[in-house]
Amino acid sequence: MTRPVVTVAERRPTRQIHIGKVAVGGGAPISVQSMTTTKTADVEGTLSQIYALAAAGADIVRCTCNEPEAAEGLAQIVPRSPVPIVADIHFHHEMALAALEAGVQGLRLNPGNLRKESEIKLVASEARDRGVPIRIGVNAGSLHPEIAKRHGGATPEALVESARRELELFAEVDFFDVKISVKASSVPLMIAAYRLASETFDHPLHLGVTEAGPPPAGLIKATAGIATLLAEGIGDTIRYSLTADPVEEARAGRQLLEAMGLRERKGLDLIACPSCGRAEIDVIGVAAAAQRALEERQIPLQVAVMGCVVNGPGEAREADLGIAAGRHKGHLFIKGKIVRVVPEDQMVEALVAEAERLVAEGVEARLAAAEAGAAEEAEADRRALLEVKGQDANRSGERIARIRELVAEEAGPASAAEGRSQ
Ligand code: SF4
């Protein structure tokens, strides 16, 4: 006799939005989010952290967009990120416009510190025209002072009212592509606020205990708040806010969802770059073929399929094994180190063979068995591709030029200088 499957409470229905390729709400799998700690202007450092977060289980990653250089960084990061990117905006509405110009798949606005109605509506109109959702990210610690005063502090009602007011402004410009968070560092307050938000809105809810602190106490606080709500069927996407390496956040989020039976456990974890102007192959086709073959063999590894050898091995250095295309060849790498170079039409076959050996022999043995000259050949291919396609294969330069114009137009010289000094 088969046992009935025990699940947590039925999910409360919400409408569905899409952060890039990730559906949120409306019965979609609950997604895991995290946030980078690098300076967003540091493109390579930020991308490397984004790949590490994706490998640890993050479905969506947020990056701060606090200065023009950050927006310019986003113009280069977004086309190379394996997961959708949300720009975090505080105080400066022109940074939201610049982030949209950079191509981000989502925005987070804090109604407590971006207060001018005309600016909020301008951002919402621009997001509407581009089909980009916004999270109304209310935070007990930075609540609008007038709302806090009227409610006698950051009460659940005050947090929900702040979100409702922002929603009303969005509605004035016909923008409804929204998710909501009402975070607090107090677990009981956060639970009460989300319960009220869930009764009040049908928008997807992003759960989190803000400033939970370092593990283990931070993990316990965040889990207490998030798990309680999930068990009641509340919440569509989650983030652990830990004072720790953000990889810990992504891992914790993923583990919580798996423990509660809300996400499937992973066997093979195939990651693939989204492909961009540098791609040398049909990444989707190769990734699908690799996935089929590796799943058939039940390979318990994280395997990366990357569109180019210029950035692929570095971006996917957290993966156990990967392959990156370039100059009609496949460059096989283990933990970011090139071990073999094969003809392009043998990429999938070589990847599968190496995966089997890696499972049987282990990382050290396979690194020791690297083909002589493979790393040098890959480096030569990388340089040759850089020469052919240049440094700006994604035409990020055009977006950056437009961001500079936009920031100058919107903010004026004084405000732009202020933004830069934050
Ligand atoms: S094609 Fe290259 S640069 Fe573009 S996303 Fe893939 S690995 Fe990154």
Automatic annotation (TrEMBL):
Cofactor: record remark: Binds 1 [4Fe-4S] cluster.
Superkingdom in the source lineage: Bacteria
Species this protein is from: Aciditerrimonas ferrireducens
Family note: Belongs to the IspG family.
Binding site for [4Fe-4S] cluster: 273, 276, 308, 315
UniProt keyword Protein transport, yes or no: no
Pathway of action: Isoprenoid biosynthesis; isopentenyl diphosphate biosynthesis via DXP pathway; isopentenyl diphosphate from 1-deoxy-D-xylulose 5-phosphate: step 5/6
SUPFAM superfamilies registered for this protein in UniProt: Dihydropteroate synthetase-like (SSF51717), Nitrite and sulphite reductase 4Fe-4S domain-like (SSF56014)
The enzyme's E.C. designation: 1.17.7.3
Iron-sulfur listed as a keyword: yes
Obligatory cofactor(s): [4Fe-4S] cluster
Enzyme class: oxidoreductase
Residue span(s) of domain IspG TIM-barrel: 14-253
Residue ranges occupied by any IspG C-terminal domain in the UniProt entry: 270-356
Reactions that this protein is recorded to catalyse: (2E)-4-hydroxy-3-methylbut-2-enyl diphosphate + oxidized [flavodoxin] + H2O + 2 H(+) = 2-C-methyl-D-erythritol 2,4-cyclic diphosphate + reduced [flavodoxin]
Gene Ontology molecular-function annotations: 4-hydroxy-3-methylbut-2-en-1-yl diphosphate synthase activity (ferredoxin)
Keywords: 4Fe-4S, Iron, Iron-sulfur, Isoprene biosynthesis, Metal-binding, Oxidoreductase
Name of the protein in question: 4-hydroxy-3-methylbut-2-en-1-yl diphosphate synthase (flavodoxin)
Function of the molecule: Converts 2C-methyl-D-erythritol 2,4-cyclodiphosphate (ME-2,4cPP) into 1-hydroxy-2-methyl-2-(E)-butenyl 4-diphosphate.
NCBIfam families per record: ispG_gcpE, PRK00366.1
Species classification: Bacteria, Bacillati, Actinomycetota, Acidimicrobiia, Acidimicrobiales
